[in-house]
Structure formats: structure tokens, C-alpha cells
């Protein structure tokens, strides 16, 4: 089996995540799709690390995880705050930048 | 040594089986996450994808990352998602009808385009290459190897990320507090206001009827510390009617006091 | 060459006087005219003194120069503001200042009722200064300054009464026609500079023998164009008739004696060019011949006394131009005729002014008649001028005109016969129309009603007329006895260099022929105009109709030059609006349309924006993919 298969899988997962971000209306589901994209890149990093034989890819993956965790924390807090004042979690409602 | 590493590093058949079973399942779960109406279903499907990825990490000699993926990502982050979902939207189901014209088609085309191009790019870069494998890098163990990298070469990034973590935690705390529009006056604030009002009489607070009283009655006024009657300690109606009885009528004899 | 120190005053004094009168305005109304006349007289005195000084010098030192300042010094091109007073210039200086002063005196009385008399005198002085600069310049560029100056002065003076739109238009017409000629002079200067590296008369004279014939012909043709513009020759003669809109002293000074002779001066001054280029000379005589007949024919049909005299001027200058094309001696005869013409034509114009003054500014000769009894002095002076222009001996015109006719015949071959024939014919027609003027104005029965009471003019008006009449009588004899003028001008134009060619006819025969045709013309006119209808008859021959319309020159100009020019301007304006402005407006409109279309992308939805980001990523990845192909 070719090691590139992992990379193809990573690309597919990334694609699915990208579609999700632009198509879903629920803010939390959008967030989850972003997480999916990040995970896909983590997979790619780990695979590259294995290809090249050093741990730099795993270090990058590690950092990505940390940052993703922070991001989720703050993002969800914001969503909760918005939900409290607006009682709706749809991203389409935040259309104040309309022309 | 290198040959051994290379031989061991090549993807072998068990791994192929692992990949071809779990890979499609992961894709299907991801698609499911995309199209399910209920948000909770999406969260759970995503959790399964993450576990699959953790298995893949372990299969690729990234032991530490695999465990961290399960513990942090699936265990903490996805659970956090689920808690928030429960708080917020557990009852509501999104309608899957698209309101913006052309959004769905364009996004599918664009994303598929990106994916395809990435696949082609990556494929061109790596097809036919044999991987080196992490046998050499993990010679002291994966965690040790990772630690070596992390605390020597990437220590600066490590410190920055830790600062980021702290900031995120603080930010979350701040955001999660409920905010009052007006702050209620605390006891201390009221006390300060009383002392600044200027009149010593109001500072100590008016004695209620009964303080310094000689008689426990509504028509006998309370006494201020200096011995004068406090005008606000009895009803004004009584005052207007003149039904006030002076309190020194009920003054005790000095002998009575001593006895008590 | 002697160096002089007072040549500059000839120009500076009138110029300063003009400036003073214009700047001071109404303050100078009481004495402005007197100052101007005094200045003019002073310049005449200076000129006369210079003349006597010149006569006492001999040889090459006769000419005097004065460098005023260094004007242009660019690389190898140097032009100094230098004045040159030589034998040719002094003739003009005396003519300009002399006749000019007489006309200043005349104008004091003629313009006495005019509110703007001071401005008139300022412009007259300006003209004197410019004309003197023209004849005193030592290079073509200096001449050009004066040339432009007289054009300006002419414009200002023709349009003096610019309250009337017709007069203002006449001034504009004169200026524009002059301008066409000025282009010729500019081109001549440029070609001269390109050929010789210098534009001074001496420089060009030195370089002329070595220049290519084509260049010389080109310069000659351009100079001829300039002369045609300034001297109202064919094809630029249409402005002279309309220029009579100005006050009569202006017509007398500028459009009879001085400015219109500037063209003759230019050609004479450039004799070295024309002597070296037979083609240019041919063009000159052709233009001269055409114009002299042109002017004569027009003059026969004009009822306006001033316009008739203007046509006469055009014709006489045609004679002069023709003479300048007849070789070295022709220049001298041209100048001779110029000087005598200055006297009798100016005198006749002043006479016409006197008649108009007496007839309450009526110009139509059909309203005159039998004025000789009422204005005797005017009639006598005018009559003497008339005899001079006819060429009756011993009056001035006889000497100058006959010499020209003679030289024309002697120029050889068919050309000589044609030119001589043209000049004789011209003389005949001149006799005809001048007699017509005299008969209509001074003789016959009175055709004016009793409201007009013609009277003789005041002394300030008839005194200059008398002086000019004396000139009309005597100047011809004085200037040509013993070939005085020919010898005087020899150093400048090499006029004694008579080509020993065949003499076609003996001079006496020529004179006899000339007198014969003149007599014919006189008798014809006297016969035709024994009775004169008060209004111009409409049933006339096609020639008369053509002559009344200035031989259709104006119509031609209008159809060929003016209307296409207007159409072109209108077309250009339309192009500017539609095409050029249209492009700009379209650009703006396009930008607006694009912006309106692009505004729709901002619908406020976050998801659209994230989709745009995704598309951006797609483009990026695509580029990378392309690059690594």
C-alpha cells in the first residue's frame, strides 16, 4: 500500500470539511467542520513526518491540536454568548454587513 | 541499520487492511456529519472520525499524538461541543433547505476542486516514494523523541502556544460570565454614600422605634443619642393628632436601674 | 557705416507719447492731440536733420546705424535691436513723418467733435512708431516687430468707432488678412535662417549668391505673400475696401501713404533675393499686374468716395509691385512712384475727408455734385492730385508712372508686351474712374437736398491739403530730375545697373501712348456721367455687377475659406463633445455599472464570504498546481 493513501484521505476529509463550513447554517456544526479540516491536516502532517523520517511533522501536529483546543474554547464561548442574547444559533442571522 | 529501518518502515499488509477498512468508514462518517439534520448526530459522527484518526496516528508510529488525540480532541473538545449543544440547540433541528442561491453548488464545486488539486499535487510529490519510517526517530521512544524536538528546536513556539492557552482560558472565562447592565450597589457603596451625605444623623442611620425607648409603644417616640426625640420614629398621623406621649414619663428611677 | 545716437528717438518719442496718452486717459483729453502732433513734428525734424547729415556724408558712411540693445543671443543665432538708416530708409522716414505730421494737424480739426480724440492720437503715434521701426530695422526680425506693430495700429484705427459692429468686423478682417501675409514673412525668416544662419539684411545679402535657387525662390515667394497681405495685393486684397470704415485721416495715412507701402519696402529691401531668383520676380510682376487691373476695375463701380479711392490705392500699389519685379532699376521707380503716390493719394483722401466733413459725413458720391463752388480749396487740391494720378505732365505722377510703363515694355519679349499693355490699360481705367470721381463730386448739377450745406473746411484741414497738393505738383519733377532718386538709391538697390536690353519703344512714344489712353478714359467718363442718377441703377452689365461686388473676392473667400472653416470648427466641437467627452463619460458609466454589479456580492451573509474565501484558496492551489506542472 502506498503511503500516499493517507494523504488522499486527508484531502478528502479536508474537502468535506470545507463544504460543511460553507453550507451548514448552524454555527456549532460549522465549527465542527472546521475541526474536521484541522484533523485532516494533522493526519497529513503525521504522514509527512513518517515519510521524511523525522518528528517535525508530529511537532506541528501537536501545536495544531493545542491551538485548535484554544480556538474551540473561545469560539464556543462566543457562540454561547450570542445565543444568550439572540436565542438563535444560525449564522445567517449575523447579516449586519449587508449593503 | 538504515536498511532495517527502511524495511520496517514500509507499509505492510496489516496496515493496508486497517487503512482500507477504517478509511472509508471515516469518510462516510464525515459525510454523515455534513448532512445530518440534528447537530448532536454530527457531533457524535465527528467523534468517531477523530477516533479513527487516532488509530491511524498510532499505526504510523505517532504514539503520543494518537493518545493525545483521543484524550484531548475526542475526550475534551468533542465533549465540550456536546455540552454546548445540549445547552443551546439540542431541541432545534436545522432545516436543510438552502437560502442563498447557488451556495451549495458553488461550494461543492470549489471544495472538490481544491481537494482534487491538492490530491494531484500531493500525489505528484509523493507517489512512488518509499517512506523512511520513524524507526530511527523513535529509537528512544516516541515521547522522548518528541520531547527532544519540542524542547530544543521548538521551545519558542512551545512558549508562545502556552501563552495562547492561558489567554484562551481567560477569554473563555470572561465571555462566559453573564453581564449585568447596571451594577447593583453593594453594601460598601451604600455605606460610603451614607457617610458622604453630610448629616451625621443620617450617617449612623436612624434608630427604629424602640431604640433608646422607655416604652415599647407606637405613640412614644424613640430617642436620638443626644436625648431628643426622633421625629421620624413615629407615624406622622399621630403627630398631627398630637397623640404623642413624651418618653421621660416612663423613665426608670435610678434605684430601679441599679437593681437591674 | 556711421554710428548714430539719435535714431532711437525717432521711435521712442512717438511710442512714449502713445503710452502716455493711453495711460493718462481722460486727464489728457484737453492737450493729448497737441502733444501727439508735436511729437510727430519732432520726429519729422529729426528725420530731416538726419537727411541733411546724410547728404553731407559720402560713400559707405552715408548709412547710419544705432544698436539699442542686444535682443536675442542663442547659440549661433544673434539678433540685436539695431536701427539702420540708409538711403532707402530715409525716404520712408521723411514720407512717414512728413505726411504723418500733416495728417496729425488735419485730425485735430477733423476729430474735434469726437469724444475719443485723444485715443485716436495715441493710436496715430503708435502707428508712427511702429512704421518707423519697420523701415529702420536692420534685420528681418526687427522689421517683423514693426510689421506686426503697424498691423496692430491699423486694426485699432480701423475699428476706432467700434460701437458699430460693421466697423469692428472690418478691423478684424484687415487683421486676419494681414495675418495670412505675416505667415509668409515668418516662413521667409525661418527659411532665411535655415539657409544663411542669420536674418540681418547684410547677412542675407552676403549669403544670397551662394544659396540654392529653390531656397531663394521660396524666400521670395514668402516675402511676396507678406507684401500682398500688407499692401492689399491679390489675393489678399479684400480688406482694403472695408478698411475705409476708419476715420478718413486713418485712410489717408495708413491706407494710402504708409502702411500699404510696407510691402513695396519689403520687396525693395530684399532686392538681393529677387535679383537672384527670376521665378520670384515673375511671381511679383504677375501679382502686380493682376492687382493693378483688379483695383482699377473695382474702382469704376464704387459709389462710396472713400472706397473708390481705396480701389485706386490698390491699383497704384499694383504698379509699384510690378515695378519692383522689373529688375534693379525697377526698385528705384517703384520708390519714386511710392513717394509721389504718397503725396497725391494722401492729398485726395484728405480732400475726400474735407468733402465728407462739409456734407455731414455723407460718402455716397451720387449725393454730391457741383461742390467745386462750395469748397474751392478742396476742389483745387483734389484736382491737382487727380492730375498727378492721371500722369499728366508736369505733375508728379507723370514722371513715376510713365517710367514704370516704359520699364515694363522694356523688360523684353512677350512678358514685356503683356506687362506694358496691362500698365497702359490700367492707366486708361484709372483715368476713367478718377474722372468719374471728380465729375460726380465737384462738377455737374447738385444732387444734394437743401438740408446739407456744404462749406469749406477749417484752416487746420485745408492747410495740410495745400502742402500735399504742392507735393503732388512738384515732387515728381524734383525727384527724377537728373535721376536724383535713382542715384540716391544706387548703393542700396544697385539701381544704376540698367540691363542694356532692347528698348521696345522710345520713351517719348510711351509717354504719348499713355497720355492718349488717359485722354480716352477722361472723355469716356465725362461723356458717361453728364447726367447722374441719385440712386445706383440696377440694370447694369455683368461687369459692373462684378465690380460692385469687388470682383467676387469676398464671396470666394467666404465660400472657400470661411464656411469650410466654420464647418470644421463645428465638427471639431461636436467630436470633442461626442467622442472625447463621450469616452470619458463612458468610462465613468462603465465603472458605475461594474460597481453596481459587484455590490450584489455583499449580501451580508457570512457563509457567502466564507465561500469567497474558499474560492480564493482554490485559485491559489490552482496556481501552485500550474507552477509545479
Task: Output the keywords.
heterotrimer; A: 99 residues; mainly alpha; 78% helix; 0% strand; C: 629 residues; three-stranded mixed sheet; 25 helices; 72% helix
SSE inventory with pairings:
The complex is a heterotrimer of chains A (99), B (260) and C (629).
Chain A: H1 4-23, H2 27-52, H3 56-86
Chain B: H1 2-9, H2 13-35, H3 39-59, H4 63-88, H5 103-126, H6 142-153, H7 155-176, H8 187-195, H9 200-204, E1 209-212, H10 236-241, H11 254-259
Helix pairs in contact in B: 2-3, 3-4
Chain C: E1 2-3, H1 7-24, H2 32-56, E2 64-74, E3 77-85, H3 87-110, H4 117-136, H5 140-158, H6 165-196, H7 201-207, H8 213-230, H9 239-242, H10 248-257, H11 262-269, H12 271-275, H13 278-299, H14 305-324, H15 328-358, H16 376-390, H17 396-409, H18 413-442, H19 459-480, H20 484-488, H21 490-493, H22 507-528, H23 542-548, H24 553-599, H25 606-627
Parallel strand pairs in C: 1-2
Antiparallel strand pairs in C: 2-3
Give a verbal description of the structure:
The complex is a heterotrimer of chains A (99), B (260) and C (629). In chain A, 78% of the residues lie in helices and 0% in strands. Chain A is mostly helical. The longest helix of chain A has 31 residues, at 56-86. In chain A, 60% of the residues are buried. Chain B has 260 residues and is mostly helical. Chain C is mainly α and 629 residues long. Chain C has helices at 7-24, 32-56, 87-110, 117-136, 140-158, 165-196, 201-207, 213-230, 239-242, 248-257, 262-269, 271-275, 278-299, 305-324, 328-358, 376-390, 396-409, 413-442, 459-480, 484-488, 490-493, 507-528, 542-548, 553-599, 606-627, and strands at 2-3, 64-74, 77-85. Chain C has a 3-stranded mixed β-sheet with strand order 1-2-3. In chain C, helix 2 (32-56) runs antiparallel to helix 3 and helix 3 (87-110) runs parallel beside helix 15.
The radius of gyration of chain B is 39 Å
Which runs of chain B of at least 5 residues are low in confidence (pLDDT < 50)? none
Helix content of chain B: 55-70%
What integer is the average pLDDT of chain C?
88
Order of helices and strands of chain C: EHHEEHHHHHHHHHHHHHHHHHHHHHHH
**Helical content class of chain C:** over 70%
**Estimated radius of gyration of chain C:** 30 Å
Average predicted local confidence, pLDDT of chain B: 80
Beta-strand percentage range of chain B: under 5%
The rounded distance between the terminal residues' Cα atoms of chain C is: 90 Å
Described by strand count, sense and barrel closure, the largest sheet of chain C is: 3 strands, mixed
- Output the number of helix runs of chain B: 11
**Main beta-sheet strand count, sense and barrel state of chain B:** none
State the secondary-structure class of chain C: mainly alpha
Most extensive interface: pair and counts?
A-B, 71 and 87 residues
Beta percentage of chain C is: under 5%
So what's the overall shape of chain B? elongated
| Oligomer type | heterotrimer
Number of DSSP E strands of chain B:
1
The run of helices and strands of chain B is HHHHHHHHHEHH
Give the low-confidence spans of chain C: none
